[in-house]
Amino acid sequence: MRFVWAVVAFLAAVGLIGAGVAQLTVLRGADTITSTIEPVDEELPYIVIDAEVLREHPGQQTLTISGSDEEIFAAYGRTSDMQAWLSDTSYNHATLLDESEVEEDASRVDLAVEEATGEFAETGERVWWNPRASDLWVEEMTAEGELETSLTLPDGMSILLSTTGSRPAPADVTVSWDTEVTTPWAGPLIAAGCVALLVGLILWVAGFLHLRRRRGPRRKGPKLPPTAPVDVSEQKQLDAAPTAESDDRHDDGGEQDTKGAKRTRRRALFVVPAFVVSGALLAGCSPSAWPEFGATPTPTPTVETTEPAEKQTPAITDAQADRIIASMSQTMKDADENNDVELAEKRMEGAALGMREVAYDIRSDVEDYPAPPAVPKGPVSVLLPQANDGWPRTALVVVGDEASEDTPTILTMTQSSPWETYKVSYMASISAGVELPELAPAWLGAALVPPDSSFLQVAPEDLASTYADIIGKGEDSEYAELFDLESDAFREALSEKRRTTRDAFNETAEGTAEITFDESAGDSDPVSLATFDSGAIVAVSLDDSETLKPTNTDGVIKVPEAPQVQHFIGEEETATGLTTNYQSELFFFVPAKASEEPIELLGYSYALVGSELLPESEGE
Hints:
single chain; 3 domains; eight-stranded mixed sheet; 19 strands; elongated
């Protein structure tokens, strides 16, 4: 019976070990899942791999692109932004097939590729845009011949593939995922098979031993002599004295003990291979070949959002901001080196562009006249994007930090459409010792505050004129109590400049001429983004001027020995007088109306914007 159970154990071992090995080999799932994208219209210049394709499998995706003589271009960005950028053209759109159409193959993902047309595309007419350097992309990549890259994209990100934007997109595109294949029962099956094998070996050996004991030689006892009287004393002596026969029997017993020990060692050696085989099989099982006993999955709590249903997406991400700022910095540097207004217009508008246009005009005549400060290369230390899915969209950025060589720069930038770049509208240096108010995180974004907002201490559209009144009247202004005048670095610097100018003027022209100063709100529209405490950071422009004119008909005013002023006037003296104009870009923190905090100046920039002679009627 022992042999029967041993055979059963051997068969069970073969079955269990075979099942475990099969899970590790022929029954193991695919380590890589691949999807091939075949354009339905090979003449279209764009291919979009939808976000739902990329999130079909978690983890890292490998993108391989080839099949074009042109430089291959790939970029990823938010799906909504990509759709907006392609809204006036047609493209190949790769999405997942319906479940009913999917063929069962664990090593690939079946895709549906169809021609998509943007909602604003005109029938029969297509618009081709070069996708390079668009501010909508989080990251872009280029390569000659073949492009292969590994990506781990968050939800909501799609991929755009193209070449020049006017030539057909690459023809050979594959997306693959490296998957973590687990075989949790391979280890237990192999272990159980090894145990069954060991049990079978033990039963087999036990059967042999039992069979030998039953079939071995049986010795008969010695034949007793006929019964006779025996002397008890002699019998005791005989019992006490050892005989040769007993010695021989003892010797035979020792030999039998030695043979038994050898048999034991052979049985031990026979059992050792079973443990060796078991160890070799189990050594090939990785942790993924074992179930996770005792690990109770932690339930993920359901997050209930408190945001309103109409909450929109922040305009840009941190990665986009870094790329946009780097591009702005380089563009401004190139424009400054060549006094190129057209190049500057690609990244600037409004008051910021106006200052640079004047500077370039002066620099064409005055070689050593400095250009206004450019945007530093980085890093981006603060990002406050507008939460807006449409256009135009705005963001506030602080470039540089305490470790930077340059003074931190604060700026607002706006993108007017999906096909435009972000352009700086206001830019200034942050004043020393200034701390920004608490802002929303970049992933949440902020609202753009209307110019006529009544929830702030001063509406954005009235802030420049209100501040101009304080510049002119100082603490006598009716608005002085609303502002933190003690920490106002711009007001202090402008007051010092005017004082110095007046003192220099009085040394040569006192009694024969007069000097007056004026200030007013600039022409540029304010830009306002909300802060966490219902306040806002507001950027405005301010104009100020100084006017010199004679006080009698014989008086003559000499034009200051400033080449930048003479550039505009073209004369060394005037009998009518002249006005020199300056412009400032100012950033304020304006608290909510219910707050007791004062309005605080955060930063400013200041530049000459022109000078002109007064008409004769004003000079008299």
